[in-house]
């Protein structure tokens, strides 16, 4: 309505033309204004938390300036946008990252200091928004940072869960889960968009009709839930561009069902409201396993439908020809979790936009693509045909149609090859028919990617073999990466400053290739000493934190050995703790004089177990049991400490990784698709002990195998070894390992009952993850670690070389590859306010 009147529009523009000043007074004024007018606190008496909130609001104001300019620019230039659809975004805290990306940390630190507040203390006031489980969700967050930094027009889409991943507390050695109501103190980073709201239908029935020779349907009845948008600005590093993360919250269509109420059914009128709100209430806490619950499918469809509608609405603002859609939008599916978006898109094109099947299919196929993150069979999503039919009847019809056309094609290409057709079908036949969501994604996408070279080769040769034969150019590799902004510059400011000093400028933060130059310092004594000092300071900070949260004092001069990731049998935290017990028993056997010669170690294990994952929880209990004994054993003293670090999360990682000297990435070969913390550790000068799995393989290519501790069965050997174990042909258990089993089973480390079945299976050769098989080579690698650590010059040289050769693992490189070969999008730098008038 404003735009009818050019004069008034001009007036508004000129009023908005002022930007927040960057001088100290302006910063202080904006913070204090928020204290008074947003938080309604007094200016002179507000807590650290109040100051954190006001500072966050003041930063949000700045972000909104560039956010608005960016979106305005993208709209007027009608640029192609990337949409990253993910059920998880593990953002981590935002304040430090925001300040660094917009290059204002120093200004804010000084402005706050001047009014008596310590910026670092404020950082700790922020809740860690944890709307993800692990690697997959954190990857999405790193991608957002790189997309904005590379000035790619991109939006993330997801769910605004009321409860993120549970908080883990350890009671009596057991994991307990506490709900994470992360919004209780408000969320100063988001903007609620009450005007961006879509109705989402569930259940009901379809009525088919024919129109222009095309079969279409109307989807009727059922129930409607509303999706409301919440936006979080995503600033890039060293650019005025600011992208967006849009998260959906569910609301009842009507606040109150008056019909039921008037009929006297008060309770059921409230119930339907609650059922609506329930959809976005909690993140499913499973990593690498599926949860076949109706509510999970509801979450998926709810968010996909709102997202697809929003994307279409934005397209239609500037475009009238549907054929242009693939030139204006690229939708990336983060695993199969948002797969139903493809079917929803097809449904809208056919039933609402009245396109014919051929046109609609072509548009869908040229704009969608899919990333696979795992080969674990228990994580490959399938949904029962009955459930989809009940919840989304039109979508089930369309899935059958897609399958029908596809099976016809396959039959033509491979006449009589029913085996192949069965494997490629979207439907797994059986008593309870299932839709295979991965097959659906592959079919609907023009590109499918794996997340590391080895993983991509595996999906091409195993789970997606038939599809790879059928579509030989579809499946390609995009090795994961992590953002150096959060994982070096923010997490390890001292290391960042040293790199900047050595390279004589800070451009490396936005172009990690530049750290290659550090190689020249790998043997520079003075530089090495600075390197050592920084690691020591980071270790001191971690030691203080551990004493605070776990109550155990750990020595600073010990080797800090860290394994932090979700607890899963394939990641083999069990092998780690079995080795620790072996180490403990070995030290116990030694004379006091020999103990003096042992390289002291602090072994830190952290990670959450899915609440229903019994074996993972048993492993946590064992680690805590071992810690209790070892840490209190006077014979052992400071030669060995064992810490279970509770509630591992993004902010904990930011303290743990910079302090680590050795990190463990020891999954059974072929099972970890990529891993991304391995990359973060290398960037922080930590050495890796690991198997030839996931991205470890590429890390070893980059940094050199001689600079890592690689061990264990290779992927080609795994199947044979496993078959041999299960056929009873296994070798006798290693005597050291047998001794470890005996000590566990005798109750040395506490209650035996919950770990017993796991140990018993290993002894019987039922060792799917090859722990007993790889143990000997793991011990040898650990011995090599000790020997190398004794030579500090060598160790630190390896550490420096690792950092200098880590450039490949920046998510900037990953995103450039996606842009080039999947999304076909260009950079669109926004003119900064100095360059142009608004
Ligand atoms: C699967 C089902 C539910 C929730 C999460 C998953 C999942 C997570 N599948 N793969 N991942 C991890 O993704 C990371 C990012 O690509 C990889 O680095 C890691 O190896 C996967 O395990």
TrEMBL record:
Cofactors: pyridoxal 5'-phosphate
Class of enzymatic activity (EC top level): transferase
Family annotation (InterPro entries): Glycg_phsphrylas, Glyco_trans_35, Pyridoxal_P_attach_site
GO biological process, alphabetically ordered: glycogen catabolic process
Catalytic reaction(s) noted: [(1->4)-alpha-D-glucosyl](n) + phosphate = [(1->4)-alpha-D-glucosyl](n-1) + alpha-D-glucose 1-phosphate
Alphabetically ordered keywords of this record: Allosteric enzyme, Carbohydrate metabolism, Glycosyltransferase, Pyridoxal phosphate, Transferase
Matching Pfam families: Phosphorylase
Modified residues (N6-(pyridoxal phosphate)lysine): 680
Cellular compartments per GO CC: cytoplasm
Function: Allosteric enzyme that catalyzes the rate-limiting step in glycogen catabolism, the phosphorolytic cleavage of glycogen to produce glucose-1-phosphate, and plays a central role in maintaining cellular and organismal glucose homeostasis.
Protein name: Alpha-1,4 glucan phosphorylase
